[in-house]
Amino acid sequence: MVKESYFVIYKIADLEEELEQIYRLNYETFVEEIPQHEKNSDHRLVDRFDDKNTYVIAKRGKEVIGMISVHNQRPFSLDKKLDNVDDYLPVSAIPCEIRLLAIKKQYRGGRIFYGLCEMLVDYCLERGFNMAVISGTLRQTKLYKHLGFKAFGPLVGTEEAPYQPMYLTKKNFERASKLFERMLRKEVRQDNYNFLPGPVEVSDAVKKAWSDKAISHRAKDVHKVMEEVQQQLCDVTNANYVEIAVGTGTLANDMIAAQLTTLPGEGLILSNGEFGERLMDQAVRFGLSFQSISKSWSAPITLEEIKRTLVEHPEIEWLWTVHCETSTGYVYPLEELKQLCNQYGVRLCIDACSTVGVLPLHLESVYLASTVSGKGIGSYPGLAIVFHHEKLFPQNSIPSYLDLGRYQTSDSIPFTHSSNSLFAMQAALQQFCPDKTKLFRDISNAFQSVGMQVLTGENYSPGIVTVCLPPEIRSRQFGDVLKQKGVQVSYESSYLLNHNWFQVAIMGQQQASHIRKGIEIIVEVYQQFAREKEIHSCEN
């Protein structure tokens, strides 16, 4: 039985070298620290129940950093200290005794103790014990109680080393575990470093605008703000028109797909990642007829391949692609795509959800483009945004909520809108800063300097750093450790877990110095994982 928690392994001691470390830890704790036994020149203490004990240990690499023993053979040590122990226990008790809790000083504070107890409870239940008794040191009474231990009987031991008899049941342990874990998280809470592609970190001005009193979407003030926000969005992207709906990036792309159903001919969709595949799925759902160029994730799709497809299929009238493939950070060359589409009379549509606010973007001559209020714009999620090159008119063949023409003829407020979302995005656009290139380069260099594999190059977005972890380091565990330290990276999406990747998104409103502190923590955690990986490979 072995459990692994971040950098610590919990197991039953079964090696001679582990037992030797146990005896020395026994000595350090119960001779040098707690005066229960006489000193000796060997600096080791073998328990009198050693032949009966099972030792649950915590190991970091080859070092035993914590232990606790258990056995079920009467008489217990507690039987010799307290008369009629069974009189204090429930009638249904099948007890074992826990003894010799010892944790090296530098690892104390709750987490290791909790891990030992969790392993111990599993071990006891496997062997049919439903209760564990313990003589708990008074110095740790509060911690014991947090884990569900119940005190019984008078104090035992000596004046120099008093102990409180206590017992633990599975029910009490499980009830206390959630509370205890919350307590530990509170104790180790760090500054928050948000490297998610959404929700992103927002500025105080955005927070204030979001928290203002909501007003009716029919009010003149809301229409005025809508007009101003539309103008701001067009100014920063060189687009002719833009519509804003209450929704997500998926809704924005559904609106594009719906609009494409009004065009004759076929389309062409490019895909070399998760979000290119999603565009194809959305096109299928809307019954669109299209060709596709699909490649493995992050493999480049060349302009020559696109040109060849357009030549071979003159019926193609539109091309739809992500601008930045968020799953990898790969960026398609927008200017070259615009030129190619203009050359062959093809309408270009792009998913720009991860590039507006991250890269300088010029949408003139782009037929349709989608983005969102979160991510690079730096506001809260909740607004779906679609830019368009031509003036659009309502189409009865399109569901009304997806009809871009209906939005345009209604000044982008055909239905209930969120005034708070609009005010917050307006505040975010006033702090717009789309160039993250230097930060991306610094972060990539920091990662690569310690051996991390980064997807990088001229075809990658400066807003998304994708790291490919080695098989020995699982992205789920790595991301969990970072989260515990207050660093949020993107790793929980199925496509990232499947590839064993994590991503650092440089979006939203954060100071460069704050970002660099978060990157330092990621580097430190990676180096610690790398050291543990080397240790484990030596043990195997």
UniProtKB/TrEMBL annotation:
Domain N-acetyltransferase, residue spans: 10-174
Gene from which this protein is expressed: phnW
GO terms under biological process: glycine biosynthetic process, by transamination of glyoxylate
GO molecular function: 2-aminoethylphosphonate-pyruvate transaminase activity; acyltransferase activity, transferring groups other than amino-acyl groups; alanine-glyoxylate transaminase activity; L-serine-pyruvate transaminase activity
InterPro entries: Acyl_CoA_acyltransferase (IPR016181), Aminotrans_V_dom (IPR000192), FeeM_cat (IPR054597), GNAT_dom (IPR000182), PyrdxlP-dep_Trfase (IPR015424), PyrdxlP-dep_Trfase_major (IPR015421), PyrdxlP-dep_Trfase_small (IPR015422)
Highest taxon, organism lineage: Bacteria
Enzyme class (EC, first level): transferase
Cofactors, names only: pyridoxal 5'-phosphate
Originating organism: Virgibacillus dokdonensis
Alphabetic keyword roster: Aminotransferase, Pyridoxal phosphate, Pyruvate, Transferase
Enzyme Commission no: 2.6.1.37
Pfam families: Aminotran_5, FeeM
Protein name, per record: 2-aminoethylphosphonate--pyruvate transaminase
